[in-house]
Every structure is written in structure tokens, then in C-alpha cells.
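seq:
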Amino acid sequence: MKRDAIQTIGLPSLNGRIEQFQVREPRAFRKPDKPFTRIAYAAAHVVADPRSAKEPWLEAAIDWDATVAYRRHLSSWGFGIAEAMDTAQRGMGLDWPNSLELIRRTLESVPGAVVASGAGTDHINLNSNLKIENIIAAYEEQCSAIEKLNGRIILMASRALAASAKSPDDYAKVYDRILGQVKQPVIIHWLGEMFDPALAGYWGKQDHYQAMDICLSVIEKNKGKVDGIKISLLDKDKEIAMRRKLPKGVRMYTGDDFNFAELIEGDALGYSDALLGIFDSIAPAASQALSFLSQNKIDKYHEVLEPTVPLSRHIFQAPTRFYKTGVVFMAWLNGHQEHFTMVGGQQSARNVQHLAELFRLADAAGLLQDPGLACKRMKQLLAVHGI
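struct:
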């Protein structure tokens, strides 16, 4: 598709110079008229409230109306909502009380959406006196709170468990106890250390393949209570290897924001469903691509989705845990929120050169929905940086 250049903007480059960049007209994407043939959850960000008097490094100030509106936007493109996950800055500014309020509001205010919500242990303080029973109780508390709202559960990885477990048996004990109690099958989330350094050595092993075996044994034992597993290791070979070993009926949800296009398409032996933070930023393109995949129009699937992969790899580049800054930046550029501020002040986590390159890659993917507005806001950001 030929896209005409419609505006020029000066953007900083890595060499420190300002270079003129031609912004092109956006691509046209159609909303789905049928369900996808892949289950697709978008992990959604929260919109901060910049007018709040709360100290941003200490308390989460949330614009609830704008936050819920963004979930309606994602749902309108055919996505389920993965709520109160790391994309929502869980563990990086969003605490458990606000997470539970977020879950409640989404379940009540986005009718018809499929919503699965994160249950973890982040309300307990990390200390050397934590026992496995304390961690089990913490998981039980959050799972119970979500189930009281009739919510589905995503069983998040636990920093407390990673810090306190003495062996793989401790992981098995915790997961066996929780999975034995949940009312309906859950999605297990294995979040890698590239997203959260505190989770290094999860499942009791530093080697990912050895850790995978521990995780698979837990799933096999509790397969009736496991809808699927999302692994976020940014390694397609590891995801494919695990996908091929899962018990029948247990889904692999890709969490690979580097290689999602080929993992969702799959191969002769299977495919991955999706639960991705990048869907927050590329919802229109991802939705159109998934519709093409559902129609077995593979060439069109790749034509739409492949330009989003460089954008995603840029947003999720190391230090990967700061990817939320790029996600929120995209939402601001596209007019879904009126400001570029974040819970915890995390808008400062990426430098201006990073954000300028994100702007270029978003244009390449055809995802600047209103180029005039995007350019205006990019210029505002540059002015704040003295550029």
C-alpha cells in the first residue's frame, strides 16, 4: 500500500542532530466482524491522573474514566483484556488495592469483554522471614478477591516466592495449593527476568529449560485447572519447545513481544494464542492481521503485522521493564489520553532519542492515526527537552 507523505517534523537522531522526517498518512484498519481463530488478550496500561496532589513516586493517581475508556477501545478491536498485569505497572507503581479497584471497574464497565486479571502476592512485604505458607496465603487472598467479582484469574509470578523458595519443591507446593482451590481454570504467567530482575531463577532453576520442566510438571499435575500458560522469555525457541510439551487442552499464550507474529501463525505442530503488552499499542493492526489469519490470508496477515515487529522490539528493548513508557507514549500520540505522565513518574524511564525512534517506527507501521496530532504532541515533548 502506497502511503503519501503529509507532514515533516524535525526529530533528534542518535548523533545528536535534528533530522527532518516525513510523516505519512496512516494505514486503514478494519474492526473485526467475526471472532478470531486465536485467543488474543491485550495487556492494558493505566492512565495516570496528572491533576492529583498525590506524590507520583509514592502513590498511584489514576484517571479511572480514561483508563476504562482505553479498555473499551481495545475491546472494540476484538481483544480480551488482561487486567492489572505488568503492563498496568503492577509492581512498578500500581499497588494491590488499586489493582483490585481497576479489576472491579473493568469488569463492570466493559460489557461483553473477556477479562482475565492478575492475582499475585505483591501486597506482602518482601523480607527474610517470609515462609511458603505466607506466600500461599497471599495468593489465596488475591485469588479470592478476584473470584468474588466473578473474574477470571491470571496467576502472576511472585517476587516473594522467587526470594523465599529454597528448591523447585517450594514452587510446586505453592502452585499445587492454589490451583487446587481456584473455581475455574487459570492462566499461569511465567514472567522472565528481562521483564523483572527479581524473578531470576523462577521455578527454582537458573536455566530456562530446566525451569520449564518444573513448570510442566506442575501443569501436568493440575491440568484440569490450567487454561494455559503465558511465558515471557523473549525467546521463540523456548516457547515452541514448551508449547510442544504441554498437555492436551492447555494453551500456550505467547508473551514474546519480539517474535509474536510467527508464534501466533504457528507451524505444522501447533500455534500460540496471545496475551501481549504490545497489543495495547498496535491494536488496530493486530486486529486486522488476526482477521486475515482467521480467513487463512497468510500473506495479508504478514503484510499488516510484520511492520509492527520492529516497533515492538524497540519498545521492549533492554532494559525491558521500561517498555510501559513506550506503550503510554503511543497512547498519548494517538489521542487516547491528554498527557504523557505515568504512575510512578515512569514517563522519564526512556530518553528522548528512544521516543523519537518509536515515533518513526510507529509511522512505518501506519499506526499514527492522526499524524497532525502526533506531530503536535511530539513537538511538545521535544520542547520540554529543550529541543
